[in-house]
Amino acid sequence: MATEEITPESAPTAAPELLVEPLGEAVTTAAEATKLYPIAPGVELHVRSGPGVNYSIVKTLRAGSSVPIICQRSGDTVSGYYGTSKIWDCIGNAQFVSDAYVKTGSDGYVAPRCS
C-alpha cells in the first residue's frame, strides 16, 4: 500500500484569519471587513450613485436593512434619524447612503476614506 507524502507545497491550507496589508497600513480581521451597520428603524433608505442628494437613486433599502461600509467620504449635509452629517457611506460600487441614517455608534468616520 502506497502512502502519500505531504510536502509544504501539497499541504492543505486554512483560510486566512487576517487580511494583511502593506507595512504601515492597518490590519483588518475578516469579521471587521464584513461588519454590518443597521439603518434607522422604520426608514426606507435611498441608495444614491454618489455622495449627495442630487445623485441618482440606484435602489431603495427596506426598513430593517443593514449595510456594510466599504469606505466613507464627505458630501452633501443631511439631517436624519441619527443627527446631521456630511459623511456618506459607500456600501457598494457607486452606492452611497447618508451616514445620518446609519447607526455606526460614532459622529465621525468609522471606515477608511474613499479614494
Describe the structure.
It is a single chain. The chain has 115 residues and is mainly β. A three-stranded antiparallel sheet has the order 7-8-9, with no helix packed on it. It has a two-stranded antiparallel ribbon with strand order 1-2. A two-stranded antiparallel sheet has the order 3-6.
Short description:
Helix content is 3%, strand content 37%. By secondary structure, the chain is mostly beta strands. It is globular, with a radius of gyration of 20 Å.
Beta-strand content bin: 35-45%
Percent helix: under 10%
SSE pattern, N- to C-terminal: EEHEEEEEEE
Q: Give me the count of strands.
A: 9
As a whole number of angstroms, the C-alpha radius of gyration is: 20 Å
- Give a quick account of the main beta sheet: strands, pairing sense, barrel closure: 3 strands, antiparallel
Measured distance between first and last alpha carbons: 58 Å
Strand order of the largest sheet: 7-8-9
Shape: globular
Global structural class: mainly beta
Continuous helix count:
1
Which residues form runs of ≥5 with pLDDT under 50?
10-31
Whole-number mean pLDDT: 82
